[in-house]
Amino acid sequence: MIAGFINENDEPVIEVKLDLGKEKRPVNAVIDTGFNGYICVPKKLIDESDWEFLGIEEYELASGELMRERVFLGRVEMGMEKLVAFILSTNSSDTLIGTKLLKNRMLTINFANKTLKIEKISENTNTE
Fold first, then answer.
1. What pLDDT, on a 0 to 100 scale, did the predictor assign at position 7?
2. Is 109 exposed, middle or buried (0-12, 13-18, 19+ CB in 10 A)?
3. pTM for the whole thing?
4. CB 18 within 8 A of CB 73
5. Domains of the chain listed by start with CATH number
6. Which of 54, 59, 103 lies closest to 74 in space, CA to CA?
7. Number of other residues whose CB lies within 10 A of the CB of residue 123
8. How confident is the model at residue 123, as a pLDDT?
9. CA 86 → CA 66, 70, 100, distances in Å?
10. Contact at 8 Å (CB) between 29 and 97?
């Protein structure tokens, strides 16, 4: 299980470790259920990494604005799990976790007590 918190902006946050190659950097990442990618990382951190550049991806923001950003193949630790993920660069200072990193997991957010948890579930488990 991964425990997190709700920050002062009412955003759900967990700590992840970005494996930059030379070091593993812990960062607070906002869980963004409107982002259907894997993880979005500030360009400053990407520039410090040894991640493999894959190309440019175009995507649409909620405002309808079209963006083009670099995509990398990188390594992320979420809880005890080491993952290889598609990493989208961003001009923002925020790291965002998208829904693809939450696949086969149950996200529970409790805004009343400002906590959250992510639990891995079996692919065969019916949660209905």
1. 97
2. middle
3. 0.87
4. no
5. 2-120 (2.40.70.10)
6. 54
7. 6
8. 63
9. 19, 10, 10
10. yes
Cβ neighbours of 49 (radius 10 Å): 19
The Cα 125–Cα 32 span in angstroms is 24
Tell me 111's DSSP state: T
List pLDDT tens digits, range 44-65: 999 999 999 999 998 887 888 8
Query: Could you tell me the CA-to-CA distances from 25 to 35, 115, 122 in Å, in that order?
Result: 22, 23, 29
Sign of CA dihedral 113, 82, 105, 35: positive
* CA-to-CA separations, 3 to 48, 90, 111, 118, 127, in angstroms, rounded: 27, 25, 14, 7, 20
Phi, psi (5° rounding) for residue 114? Answer: 60, 40
**How far is it between the farthest Cα atoms of the chain?**
43
Tens digit of each residue's pLDDT (9 = 90 or more) over 63-105 = 888 989 999 999 999 999 999 999 999 999 999 999 999 999 9
Handedness of CA 8, 10, 16, 19 (dihedral sign): negative
